[in-house]
Amino acid sequence: MFYDTIAAIATASGIGGVAIIRMSGNQALTIASRIFRPVGKTPVAEFEPYRMYPGDIDCGSFSDFGMCVFFQAPKSYTGEDVVELHCHGGVNITRAVLRSCLRCGARLAERGEFTKRAFLNGKMSLSAAEGIGDMINGESEAEVKAGYLLYHEKLSKKVKALQDEFTGMLAGIDAAIDYPEEDIEEEKIGDIEKSLRQAEAEEASLLSLYKTGKKIKSGVTVALCGKPNTGKSSLLNALLGYEKAIVSDIAGTTRDAVEGSIEIDGVRFHLYDTAGIRESADKIEAIGITKAERIVRSADLVIFVCDAREVDEADAVVLESVKDKPLIRVMNKIDRDRDHIDSDADVYTSALTGEGLERLKAKMKEMSVSSYAEDSAFLIEERHYAALERGHKFTVSALEKCGVMPLEILALDIKDAWDALGEITGETATEAIIGEIFSKFCVGK
Fold it and tell me: Lower Cβ count inside 10 Å, N or C end of the chain?
């Protein structure tokens, strides 16, 4: 439990209807009583928790009429006494209220210090705290939802269950070692091996979701490729809903990658319109083609675009170059010629009329985040993936030693697996890890 009281503006800077200044610490209510004059006879020191009280807020050279609410420890966000002063929104008003709090004994909070105190006071796991950060910084609905699941301990509950399994194994090993005369070691090895196999399968299942989780957090990179003049730029503009790329009948118009982003069912897709892939003597176009090939190699998903009127060997050459990537074959410009439909195409579109665009979007989501479910505990943090991967390696190592090595040696791997998973929940996280996580938060959160 901390003993100093911290204060910060909890709402975004700028002009708004309401702003909130938050304090946390054992002096929060005392400080509030020095700057808040409630309407009525109830003094601040006797405020009923979780109830809003109207009154005047002393801002130094002026006053503002607002509200005050008291959250009593331990039933508060930080686990400490928390007071919030709600004033009229505006830069000068909120800063003046904060100055009054600091003048009366609070200190300015550091980045993420409110949430850090919540973690250190046992109000949430470390992964839940990271979930709050993901929600605040989320740039898509899917990322916000994934952060929400982290905040509500969806991942930490699974990890904690694994840790409990390892704890049970270690207890069994201790019993076998402490009471050798009971001859229970052979029986215990069978139970431990079974538990380790279950734990390994659960870890592997969680690890397999990282690719999807990473796409949810960072977005799906999509490269539109094909030979020149197949309508890639027109298709990009149609997907974005505005004219981002230059459209021309002249082959080689697109010489540098043009990008834009859209959301499909809450998931972000970063689209790259690349230069038409072909042999070119034009040095500038050749540079664009080289860059296009590089973007295609690094893309999560490739949309191969061909012209309904002109499917030829050149298309086959481009298609061969992207065959190892997740691929959607799109036959574009079907409004011009419906008599020459390529049966191998996945989607038929017209960038001009919009035909097939919704089908294409559905296919993009299906091909890239097919395992996405709104209530799933995805690994979206690289730190979590690294910790779980280490834990999985120790679990596999323990399995290999079952029945081969002494129980004491087996216990070392199991304990290491427990420790690795503890970095996700925060039980074994170092000060450096904790500091790095909360340094990414804003002041006031």
Answer: N
